[in-house]
Specification:
The chain is of the alpha+beta class. It contains 24 helices and 30 strands. Helix 13 packs antiparallel against helix 23. The radius of gyration is 35 Å and the shape is elongated. The two termini are 33 Å apart.
Length: 881
């Protein structure tokens, strides 16, 4: 205890030691980022490839399987998932946590580049990105006003989006509900056939006539001139003058076979805020950036933008995920302050001395603020996990100081001088204080070394708690003895309160002495009772609800709506508006933000509604109760919905996926069998009760027009399959033929068949393709048309087909639900080759259960070893009997 004696003899040293901790903590506070959860970098990489107009089966066969085969050879892959939907292939690669995601992302790029030539020529280049599961939009801003959607889209895209993207910390800004300007060339197939032309002739004409090529340079003795060949169209109207072909000495121009329109992109998504149409800008932060700081920076920029908005334009915040973060951090900070205050009150009640209490009041802030310095040096953030660890440690922080303080106070009451009393008291309890701190570190340090995603989340929790108790021990052995040697005085308290408390403590001491004497006389019985308590704790602990994250009232949630397959955007929008109005009728609802077709798959039959509630302090019903009420409202509405879900804001957001409280995948070779097993399992879950929003990912019934090419006829006519496919794709999917520049901005030029020829599948036969001899061949002579239904999306895991099950819970713990679902799966007796696997949230839940067991075992072993090293009798427990 030389350190304590040094501090008693040299108080300035003790003050400066504690002061330096406090100063470092105060300097660190304004530099600490604020976020909801700790920074966790997951080794996830996605490969996104677009093939316009392709069916899910084509996307799977031509793109997804090719990419999977190449990527699967990379070392360290934990899970390889993929999703093939209309026009989109999304391959999701999850690596083991110990690998560097930057290196693995580069390996994925190399593998994809090696097979790029095997992908369809019309496919867009694959986009490889590292994925931060927390990279969900942190802020959504709606641009609204009494203007056309094209004008709103242009202003949002050209004026607001670039300014927001320049803000430090902003990763990307995505437009939802926009219809940007686009030059549309509407092909008339009848007029095209009348002039003996095909769509390929139009595309070749645009590529031939709308070009700008370098012309080199001309050098004279005096000057050097750059030669520029200006062949691009200078105005939208001029596109109609582009020559397509020559017939009988007459030039056929584009206007003769098509209509040129200075229009806008096809409407495939929409966004509304409280029923008002507009264009939404979703702001995402960069990986590892602080959410609150990014939102504050964006808000500051939005205020500058608002000052110069054109008349009628408005910028309204539609969604702000930092609101809950601020509220959660503020609540935990208030709880931390209350904990410190109540701890000081308890010290005052038991010691009944203001001088002694003032010592405790000084040491608590020193320990708390000093711990904040470790936040900065370790790169931690102020989040719910770290602040929860700090709040948990407040009661522990005061323990060490109280032990030293109370023992010093006892020696002073015995008549010893304050300096001698502080020195002797610290020497008596110093070893116990250090042993207690080591025991606590033995509990918290193993948490920092847990494996899996759960370990990443709780790493900062364990280290912060360990740093806090270590700091409190340092303060208790330095500052506390010094303050005791200077401030403690011997005195006898007076007053009724003092005398009454003294009598109570004396009575408590007598009872404790009697109980202790009885326990020492019946050691075997006491040990048996202790072991029984441990066994009972284990028995009860197995029945305590376990979850990955606690259900919290965030004052916000999502509503997911799915209309029947084939529903148009207009019908989906109308249905979503009805649900939106019913939700807005609830008095607790503050704002409702709706997007239709805004997800990565651009499915127009799905809508997502973000519901923002009044703060929980200003409403009587809780969030879970309101979510249950919204489920009832939707069920009672009688709307033509195929499915719906009312979900919490997901803590982890994966592109192209959903998040729910229970998530499973059934793997196997046959899709029909997978679908049957999944629906049988869901039926048992519904019968058991306690589940809500149950959903099976496998969907069939998507209306399709299947064109089967008669290869023999096509060969005799001199027409290749590629020609037929390109003609159909260009006219019905629309092809971006070139670009048009105006005012320094670039706009797409899209060629597509007129809308009146796309409203009936039988009109496909109006198309013509050119044979090798130059003659036009009707498409109806080359293909057979059949109306059928196909899959909406095809999911795979580790290169095998899967069907996923999602659901939420009502009155049932996640751990209980997981055990129940596993039991149901066993009863179904899956055929060989089929298995049920936990994914997403449920997988994290199981990691949490394993982490709890691991932490308890390691902590018990560590505590035993520490205590055994201090007291010989603990090395042989049976000797105490």
């Amino acid at each position: 205890m030389k350190l304590a004696d040094t501090c008693i003899r040299r108080p300035v040293f003790a003050v400066m030691l504690a002061g330096s901790l406090v100063a470092l903590g105060l300097l660190a506070v304004p530099r600490l980022p604020v976020d909801l959860f700790p920074r966790v970098e997951f080794p996830y990489v996605t490969v996104r490839t677009v093939l316009e107009g392709a069916a899910p089966e084509t996307v799977e066969r031509e793109i997804t399987q090719v990419l999977e085969e190449a990527i699967n050879t990379i070392e360290g892959i934990r899970m390889l998932r993929s999703m093939s939907s209309h026009s989109l292939s999304l391959v999701f690669v999850e690596f083991e946590l110990e690998y560097d995601v930057h290196e693995k992302a580069q390996e994925v790029r190399d593998k994809v580049a090696a097979v790029r030539a095997e992908l369809p020529e019309d496919a867009d280049p694959p986009v490889i990105e590292r994925v931060d599961p927390g990279d969900q939009p942190v802020l959504a801003v709606m641009v609204a006003g009494p203007h056309s959607i094209r004008a709103l889209s242009e202003y949002a895209d050209k004026r607001i989006k670039p300014r927001l993207e320049r803000i430090p910390g902003v990763g990307s800004v995505q437009l939802v509900g926009s219809r940007p300007r686009e030059v549309r060339i509407w092909i008339d197939p009848v007029r095209l056939a009348g002039h003996s032309l095909t769509v390929e002739d139009v595309l070749h004409a645009l590529g031939r006539e709308h070009v700008e090529l370098p012309g080199g340079r001309i050098e004279t003795p005096e000057l050097e001139y750059t030669v520029r060949i200006q062949g691009k169209v200078g105005a939208v109207e001029t596109f109609g003058e582009i020559p397509v072909a020559t017939r009988g000495g007459r030039v056929l121009r584009l206007r003769d076979v098509a209509t040129v329109e200075d229009g806008q992109a096809e409407e495939r998504m929409a966004s509304y805020l409280d029923g008002r149409r507009g264009v939404a800008l979703f702001v995402r932060r960069q990986s590892g950036e602080n959410t609150v700081a990014v939102v504050d920076a964006v808000r500051a920029e939005l205020e500058k933008i608002r000052r110069h908005l054109p008349p009628g334009y408005q910028l309204v915040e539609a969604m702000d995920l930092s609101r809950f973060i601020r509220s959660a951090v503020r609540d935990v900070t208030v709880d931390l302050a209350w904990g410190a205050f109540l701890a000081s009150v308890v010290v005052l009640v038991f010691l009944r001395d203001l001088r002694s209490t003032s010592i405790a009041v000084v040491t608590i802030p020193c320990s708390v603020v000093g711990t904040l310095a470790f936040f900065y040096f370790f790169g931690f953030t102020l989040n719910t996990m770290t602040l929860m660890a700090l709040s948990l440690s407040v009661g522990i922080l005061i323990d060490d100081a109280v032990v030293v303080l109370e023992n010093s106070y006892r020696h002073v009451e015995l008549g010893e001088p304050p300096k001698e009393a502080a020195s002797r008291a610290t020497a008596e309890v110093g070893l116990a204080v250090v042993a207690t701190t080591l025991a606590l570190c033995a509990v918290f340090v193993p948490i920092a070394f847990l494996g899996g995603v759960v370990g990443r989340f709780f790493r900062e929790f364990g280290l912060v708690a360990s740093c806090a108790v270590s700091t409190s021990t340092l303060v208790a052995l330095t500052l506390t003895p010094m303050l005791c040697s200077r401030f403690l005085r011997r005195g006898k308290g007076t007053g009724r309160l003092f005398v009454g408390l003294e009598r109570g403590y004396a009575s408590l001491e007598r009872r404790y002495r009697s109980a202790l004497a009885w326990a020492l006389r019946h050691r075997a019985l006491v040990l048996a009772l202790a072991l029984s308590a441990v066994a009972a704790g284990i028995f009860v602990g197995r029945r305590v609800p376990v979850d990955f994250l606690a259900v919290e009232d965030r004052s916000e949630f999502h509503v997911w709506l799915k209309m029947p397959l084939g529903t148009t955007l207009e019908n989906a929008r109308r249905t979503a508006r009805v649900v939106e109005e019913k939700i807005r009728a609830l008095p607790e609802v503050r704002a409702v933000f709706t997007t239709v077709g805004g997800d990565i798959q651009r499915r127009v039959n799905e809508a997502r509604i973000y519901v923002q509630l009044e703060h929980k302090s200003r409403r009587e019903r809780g969030q879970m109760e309101l979510m249950a009420r919204v489920r009832e409202v939707i069920a009672e509405s009688g709307l033509p919905l195929e499915d719906h879900a009312v979900e919490e804001i997901p803590p982890v957001d994966i592109p192209g996926g959903r998040s729910a409280q229970i998530m499973y995948s059934i793997r196997g070779p046959d899709v029909a069998t997978l679908d049957r097993l999944a629906r049988q399992l869901v039926a048992r879950m519904r019968a058991a009760g306690g589940y809500a929003d149950l959903y099976v990912s496998h969907e069939v019934g998507n209306p399709e027009v299947e064109l089967t090419i008669d290869r023999e006829r096509a060969a005799l006519s001199g027409v290749s399959t590629l020609q037929v496919g390109r003609a159909i794709s260009a006219l019905f999917a629309g092809v971006r033929a070139t670009t048009y520049e105006e005012g320094g901005e670039r706009y797409d030029v899209r060629v597509q068949i007129r809308p009146e020829y796309r409203d009936d599948p039988s009109k496909i036969t109006l198309l013509r393709v050119r044979s090798a001899s130059g003659a036009l061949v009707p498409l109806e002579n080359l293909v057979r048309t059949r109306i059928r239904s196909g899959p909406v999306r095809i999911d795979r895991e580790n290169r095998t087909r899967v069907v996923r099950i999602y659901g939420n819970l009502e009155g049932k713990a996640a751990g209980t639900a997981d055990r129940e679902v596993v039991r149901f799966a066993r009863e179904l007796d899956f055929p060989p080759g089929y298995e049920l696997a936990a994914i997403g949230y449920t997988e994290r839940l199981r990691e949490t259960q394993r982490a709890i067991a691991f932490a308890l075992v390691v902590a018990l072993v560590a505590i035993y070893m520490i205590l055994a090293s201090q007291f010989d009798s603990f090395a042989h427990p049976l000797t105490i009997m």
